[in-house]
């Protein structure tokens, strides 16, 4: 069965410091991995995805993520956090051979303090 | 705006009533998904359409739930005989026709069953 784990309910970072939001996954086939961000009272916004190729993928707003097949991880990173990055972040996985629905983690609340 | 739209944004209903939600996907997207999100959880897959065909339904989709996508355009999700446990945010997403493509989410319909 497909699953996603986000081990941290909340991550606290000072503005200007690097941030990491962790994600591990489990799928039977090739993983297609996605990160979404959710701001209060707004829908999920797509940040980036890994389908194949380079393990380091770059996305919107300066975010990037590193795919690690041996550790089955897809951690979200940003070199320098902004207060405006404070939001709820969701990792999602799709088995490449499946019909297409996403399996989401529970989400990690990122809090960036000035 | 050419994003995914959902109506209504909020719905309060009494237990036992029927409710219907509408989703208008991005016009060139032929895949449409419904998810449910409860507080503190990530979105959970409910059902998926490719054009007008409903291709997959989650076990979460009890027989009180029905979804349609006539003519492969907008979609409706109906809940009959609502229960308090149905209270959640109902999210619609659409995507291009390949598992490689990310899903774009609407703002959601928040259902409160009293």
Helix content of chain A: under 10%
What is the CA-atom radius of gyration of chain A, in angstroms? Answer: 13 Å
Mean pLDDT of chain B: 93
Judged by helices, strands and strand pairing, the structural class of chain B is mainly beta
Order of helices and strands of chain A: EEEEEEEEEEEE
SS summary, helix count of chain B: 0
Task: State the total count of DSSP E strands of chain A.
Answer: 12
Largest interface: A-B, 25 and 25 residues
Looking at this protein, list some descriptive labels.
heterodimer, A: 114 residues, mainly beta, six-stranded mixed β-sheet, four-stranded antiparallel β-sheet, 12 strands, B: 114 residues, seven-stranded mixed β-sheet, 11 strands
Q: What's the layout of helices and strands?
A:
The complex is a heterodimer of chains A (114) and B (114).
Chain A: E1 3-5, E2 10-14, E3 19-21, E4 24-26, E5 31-38, E6 44-50, E7 56-58, E8 64-68, E9 73-78, E10 87-95, E11 103-104, E12 108-113
Parallel strand pairs in A: 2-12
Antiparallel strand pairs in A: 1-4, 3-9, 5-6, 5-10, 7-8, 8-9, 10-11, 10-12
Chain B: E1 5-7, E2 10-13, E3 19-24, E4 31-37, E5 44-50, E6 53-57, E7 65-68, E8 75-79, E9 88-95, E10 104-105, E11 109-113
Parallel strand pairs in B: 2-11
Antiparallel strand pairs in B: 1-3, 3-8, 4-5, 4-9, 5-6, 7-8, 9-10, 9-11
């Amino acid at each position: 069965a497909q699953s996603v784990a986000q081990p941290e309910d909340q991550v606290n970072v000072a503005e200007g410091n690097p941030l990491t939001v962790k994600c591990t996954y489990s799928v039977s086939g090739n993983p297609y991995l996605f990160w979404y961000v959710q701001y209060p009272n707004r829908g999920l916004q797509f940040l980036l995805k890994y389908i194949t190729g380079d393990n380091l993928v770059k996305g919107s707003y300066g975010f990037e993520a590193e795919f690690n097949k041996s550790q089955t991880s897809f951690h979200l990173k940003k070199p320098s956090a902004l207060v405006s990055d404070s939001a709820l972040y969701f990792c999602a996985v799709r088995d490449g051979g499946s019909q297409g629905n996403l399996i989401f983690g529970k989400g990690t609340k990122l809090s960036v303090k000035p | 705006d050419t994003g995914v739209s959902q109506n209504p944004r909020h719905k309060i209903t009494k237990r036992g009533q029927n409710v219907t939600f509408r989703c208008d996907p991005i016009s060139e997207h032929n895949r449409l998904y419904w998810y449910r999100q409860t507080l503190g959880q990530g979105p959970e897959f409910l059902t998926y359409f490719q054009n007008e065909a409903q291709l997959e339904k989650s076990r979460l989709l009890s027989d009180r739930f029905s979804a349609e996508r006539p003519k492969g355009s907008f979609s409706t999700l109906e809940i009959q005989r609502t229960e308090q446990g149905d209270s959640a945010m109902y999210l619609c997403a659409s995507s291009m026709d390949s598992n490689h493509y990310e899903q774009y989410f609407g703002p959601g319909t928040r259902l409160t069953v009293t």
